[in-house]
């Protein structure tokens, strides 16, 4: 277990990395770096875990006070690890142009996004090493550039096929044609509706006229009847007067 840890961990942090010179107490006497994963021996001396385990493989005495040290009696100092993690450091890519500073504990996450990190070109087969910030400029010139069509048609595009690939244009044309058709249908429906509305208005007017003429006819009828009555009464009186005259 301890052996595996030793092989994957490195010694202390380079003092030069820190924005402010680290406290003397935080320096490992074995590697002279800032304590990485600090552990304490029974004699209260503190070292990087890797450094002391390596040392104890050769001799089981403390490098500071020469007292015997039992390798199974060294303790990881979690609180100290945390406070060292809060110390501000400069980016290791400072010489390439990165001016960022951040807590030591964020070193790894910064390296994943640092624009001045040297990374291999992500396209398979390309051997170029470049700064992350130059990737966008490199991609259009990379012979090994491969990317699935972002429209999701499933085609993997290369530098040479990308220019001719037009599934996006085709999709857009299809969409625009459909939209034009829909607009035409909507307009035709609107025209039809306007025609029906005007027909209805026309019919309303006609019905109105028919009603009016029916009323006029009724009136006429009534007038005619009235005239008939009047005439008959006058004629009867006339006849009666004529009769009386004769
Ligand atoms: Zn050390
Ligand atoms: Zn000691
Ligand atoms: Zn950086
Ligand atoms: Zn490349
Ligand atoms: Zn496509």
From TrEMBL:
Residues 28-66 form the RING-type domain. It comes from the Eukaryota. Keywords: Metal-binding, Zinc, Zinc-finger. Residues 232-246 have a biased composition (Low complexity). A zinc finger (TRAF-type) spans 109-153. Residues 226-246 are annotated as: Disordered. Pfam families: zf-C3HC4_2, zf-TRAF. The keyword Signal does not apply. Residues 109-153 form the TRAF-type domain. One of its GO terms (biological process) is regulation of canonical NF-kappaB signal transduction. One of its GO terms (molecular function) is zinc ion binding. This is Ribosomal protein S2. Signal peptide: none annotated. The keyword Zinc applies.
